[in-house]
Amino acid sequence: MRRALLRIGLLLCCLQLLSPGLSHAAQDLHGRRVLLLYSYHPGFPTTGKIHDGVFSVLAPTGIQIDEEFMDARHLTDADSADRYRDWLAYRLARKPRYDLVIAADDAAFNLATDYGTHLFGNAPVVFLGVNNVERAIAQRGSPRETGIVENVSIPETFALARRLMPGLQRVVVIADDSPGGRADLQTLRAKQKFGFPDIAIEVADLTQISWDQLASRLARLNPDEAALLLAAYHDTNGQPRSFEDGVDWIVKHASAPVLHLWEHGLGRGLLGGYVMSHREHGLLAADMALRILNGAAPNTIPIRDTSPNRPIFDHGALVRWHLPENQLPPDTLILNQPIPVWRAHPAASAAAATLVAGLTLLAAALALRTAQRRRILNRTLRERALLRTLLDSIADPVFAKDQDGRFIACNPAFERLSGNAEAQLIGHTDHDFWERGLADFYRAHDRTVMSSGEARRNEEWIVYPDGRRVRVDTLKSPIIDNAGQAIGIVGICHDISAAYEAALRLRQADAVFRNTAEGILVTDANQKIRAINPALSEISGYREDELLGQHPRILDAERPASEARQAMSEVLQRDHRWIGELWLRRKSGEPIPVWATVIAVHTDEDQIAEYIAVLADITPLKDRQQQLERQAHHDPLTGLPNRALLQDRLQGALNRARRDRREFALLFVDLDRFKEINDQFGHAAGDDVLCEAGRRISASLRLGDTVARLGGDEFIVILDGLEHENAVNQAIERIQIALREPIIASAGQTLSLRASIGVARYPDDGEDAETLLSHADSAMYRVKSTHHR
Questions:
Q1: From the candidates 713, 764, 765, 768, which is the catalytic residue?
Q2: 509 pLDDT exceeds 90?
Q3: Do residues 525 and 609 touch, judged by C-beta distance below 8 A?
Q4: How many Cβ atoms sit within 10 Å of the Cβ of residue 744?
Q5: Distance between CA atoms of 721 and 708, rounded to whole angstroms?
Q6: CA separation (Å) from 144 to 101, 109, 289, 379, 426?
Q7: pTM
Q8: Please, what sign has the CA dihedral across residues 584, 586, 592, 594?
Q9: Given pLDDT bands bounded at 50, 70 and 90, which one contains residue 7?
Q10: Is 305 a catalytic residue?
Q11: Where are the alpha helices (DSSP H) in 482-531?
């Protein structure tokens, strides 16, 4: 006891000796000025936490603390940074110098280290929340700077996530172009190999994807996946979101827990993790500032390269994702735990419980007494009234018969069915109201139910007195007395006409669906294929299991989407129906034309429920159409272009020649002595000669030149784009050489040819098709006349 008193006395003496010094130190700090420079705006989530930490340490000492906000999240370009720096210098130049500067986060840290002497003179700088670890550590030994690095605990967070989710295989990491986000992403990648190599990392990079694409990926998170939010302020389209809006967007669309490395944001649906607290950073930075203001040199205070992090999780998120709270470390801080009402309001809860217990006992006593009296006095009346109410309230026809088949009760629905009132039915049998065969059927069925002691049902058609015919499902059950004997039956007839007709229509529709020659494809509102019929498999070459769940674009031969496809979407939105021609691509890659009818099926709320497409293969029709087009533009004998196609190509050659200001030539080729061949060897041999002549003339020309047959033994050649002056003569020479080669007709005759060839040049001999043809024709006849001399 005496030793204890001695210790207390010594302690009091020490405190008395120390107190003047402490009082002096605190008094010396009155009037000292500190600037707290934030990187972001006042409403940023970390601002309030940093403010609380710094002010809770420095404000009680009498230090004057001013605050400035850079708003670096919005002023991201160099010009804005320069303007802010000039504005800050202007403001500071009109104030007394600060004794110390606290720089919060990277933007303020960079400004203080790059321009600190210009802006703040020799004022020491204490930084906090800096993500650029390398640059922060580089300040070690600096006579002006010290502080705390924001060192996120990524491996520790992944370890906690694996404890909560043992099957965790993949983490989708959300990051954007912000400096903090890029630095944390770099840290994560650096630590993955040794910290959590068995967890796959997928980066949802908002510099490359939009908010909607991020939402789509988060909605597809599997049970063995989670997300980690590093930074989400801008997407690839430049669309900004505040921190709160970004968190709410991510939580809204995530189908799995979202981890977070910072205290701010917890309570909005984020799960948490091994969390960095900006308030703790503020406390530590303020403590360093206090030591410097009390005389310590900044380079004697080591830069702290580890954050004071700890496990923090949100109770609501743990409950939402069914995660076991008991798997977390004992020192874990659980936020937003519900407080029981009885603990929050113990006195009121006790009074309410007493009152409820008393009322419950009183109500129970009254109910028991009332129930006893009712059972004694009104049991029979209640049971009869209950039965009557039940019968009358049932919409389906209900009846009861005794063991001899006489009606003993029925409801109004059965009265309407039979066309007789209950009073007329009671005491009578089925034979009094229905024809004998039907009455015998009913009676036999009643006996089966009573003899088996089990409920039986059957479907049958019945006819109402007004002639209405309906299909009913009749269920009959035995009425059993206390001795276990069947003393009658009770039956209920349920109208199943609608269901019967619907099932029939469904079978009919299925038969049409399975056997129609047109392909049918059904998708949901998101255009995922839900069903196809055999005809579509035959048309497309795909099996049903290969198409189910796919987008119809797998069959699309028109990629990218054509204007017609866009027009189809617009018509579907407006009219709910589109009819037209489409091109599909078979599994083999072969394109096929189809005539399509696409219908958008809507719900009662006018929302699209599904799309139905009916596709008819029109390949034979297209082939026939191409055949008809070829017959319309080609000579049926030689297959060469006919007069109509010649006019089109000649006009094209004229247009090109006018546009490019160049020449082209027209050759009029007439086979000499062709009539003699026809007369001597027959028309079959003549046809062989014409076909072979057309082929040889074509083979003598360039790829872009045209050979057409006018009729008889006359051919027209278009030499498009003459390369040199002698090109026409060379072409004529090649044609003549080709035609002089002997021709073997199908009947074995050997024939030889020569041609008279007239030339017309554009523009020398004419500037339109008719003039050029006329000039070439005249030239040909002049040449032919020389052959007959």
A1: 713
A2: no
A3: yes
A4: 11
A5: 18
A6: 10, 12, 12, 96, 109
A7: 0.41
A8: negative
A9: very low
A10: no
A11: 497-515
